[in-house]
Amino acid sequence: MSPIGLAAGMITWILTPVLPLNHDMVFVSYIRVLAAAFLMGLAAAAPIGPVNMMAIRRGVVEGWRHTLVCGLGSVFGDLVLFSLALLGGRYLMPDLFNPTVRVVLAAIGAVVLVPVGVYFVALALKESHRAYDSARRRWSEGPAPARLAAEATKAAALTILNPLTMIYWVGVTSSWLPFAYSVLGNRALAWGLSMAGAGLMGWFTALVVVVRFIPHRIDAIFFRLANAVLGLILLSFATYCAVVLLRHFLH
Predict the structure, then answer these.
(1) What is the 3-state secondary structure (H, E, C) of 169-181?
(2) Nearest-5° angle of CA 188, CA 194, CA 196?
(3) Cα-Cα-Cα-Cα dihedral sign, residues 28, 226, 218, 161
(4) Is residue 71 within 8 Å of 55, Cβ to Cβ?
């Protein structure tokens, strides 16, 4: 089995709807919920775009600390959007065990995530070099900013104002929150933010290591792999939503 196939299988296992819990299943269910939140953060940070290109360019030109600062700004922006999505879901928490609410959230997740996931898989297969070259030209213009705070602010703003990022967090939150609430209860919000933050920082930590030690490895192939993994993660979340819908209609 290929590495991508193995990763897809693991993601599908993580997102498979769980049966009513017994004592032997509690630990596994916790791992699934937390791993899914971690993957949500990792997938949010990975796609090629202005933030990643800015982080790489600043790091190559001025040092790895600039990549780290751009990453911190982007992580802050993503967690703001995730918090807003969770805040909206919080008002639905008392109703998350209602089958109708679960079906509606699953339908929203499937409708949002399927086209976005297909888009990133297609981008990885066909358009990675063109997307990379375009983003690189865009962020090669003008002098690098001198202040780290300005870089962090710019990265946060680019993340928060990105419509695709907004759609992403709405989609994954609608699929993850009912699953997480059934396992973690009221602790789902805090654990979700913590694990998503860890996933976000995991990506930018890896990017810092690459910029610091092997900058020559950053090319279109690097982002092609990142886009492929992102597309698989999004399609796995969409598959989970589809399974929830199928189980509902079959019963």
Answers:
(1) HHHHHHHHHHHHH
(2) 95
(3) negative
(4) yes
Q: Is 205 inside a domain boundary?
A: yes
**pTM of structure:** 0.68
Residue 10 located in a structural domain: no
Give me the domain span that covers residue 142.
26-250
Among 7, 224, 234, CA closest to 115: 234
Alpha helix positions (H), the chain: 3-15, 26-45, 50-62, 64-90, 99-122, 128-138, 148-160, 163-184, 188-213, 220-250
Q: Are 52 and 134 in contact (CB under 8 A)?
A: no
Under 8 Å between Cβ of 34 and 188: no
Other beta carbons within 10 Å of 67? 28
Does a structural domain hold residue 230?
yes
pLDDT digits (tens, 9 = 90+) for 80-131: 999 988 887 666 556 656 677 777 777 877 887 788 778 778 877 775 555 5
Q: Are 237 and 113 in contact (CB under 8 A)?
A: yes
Under 8 Å CB-to-CB from 184, ≥6 apart: which residues? 30, 33, 191
Nearest Cα residue to 49 out of 210, 197, 169, 158: 158
pLDDT tens-digit map of 145-175: 456 788 888 889 888 877 778 878 888 888 8
Closest CA to 69 of 196, 204, 161: 204
Q: What angle do CA 108, 50, 230 make, to 5 degrees?
A: 45
pLDDT value at position 141? Answer: 45
Q: For residue 161, what are its two tokens?
A: 């104002």
When divided into structural domains, the chain yields a total of: 1
